[in-house]
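Recall that a protein's primary structure is simply its ordered list of amino acids. Everything else, from secondary elements to tertiary packing, is in principle encoded there. The following example makes that idea concrete.
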Amino acid sequence: MQRILILIFIFLLGLNMKQPTNNLESEIIINKKSYKYGFKNNTIFLYDEKEDKHYSDNINIPDDKTILCMTTGDLDDDGTDEILLLSSAKGKKYGNDLIIYSTVIENETIKCGKIYKNDFTNVKPWEIKLCDLDGDNNKDIYVGVYKSTPMFDKVENRPFFFNWNGKILTKKWTGSKLEHPLESVHFYDIIGDSKEEMIVVEKLENTKEVISIYYWFNFGFIKFAESNSYYNIEDISLITQDDIKYISLNLGRKKHIKLHLEGNKFIENISLD
């Protein structure tokens, strides 16, 4: 079968930027059909279930810019995902523009159309993700920023949240003071209420880190649970075993910890590979 190549030319230079994965693990939905995509040699490859490739040259990033962070999701509930990305100057840790693209397949070619662009330079964005804090199937847009706020003058990592009304972003929550400084953010329905909680790696004053769960309550977040403290949490993920949801922590040196909730308490299981 003829294989048609999808290439979206993206320059991914810079030591401080978050590098997208080269593995075909991320998915995008176009016309209610799932495709996997991955990065290789500064190129995005999209594959269908038969690993047929498709081609697109519609995302144009200026030569002096690169992609800092990218995610996909269905913002308007039409069965097709949009592409959301942060662009940045090459080699810079923080982003400039937040850009949203529509996607469609025409004659076996992916077409991407820019539907939104806004300059976020002043808030120093470093990450973008989608979540559903309300459980209403409308995507909330999380942007990790590095700034002070009117109530807290210390410059640090903060989670900002926005809604998409089809034309512009509107603020959902930008108060953004958590109990401890923010290291990374993930979104899982760990409580089982059809809403995604904010799972946060937070840094303590003694350089250890904790996993905290915050859930959305009307106009802000309430902290639900906090783990024991650990050194060097390299990665976290959500796994399900025997119908029990666990937050899996990679602590390096082949040490893994699984956490599950009983009420609002974390129960810890340690394993050494």
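The radius of gyration is 19 Å. The chain has no helices and 20 strands.
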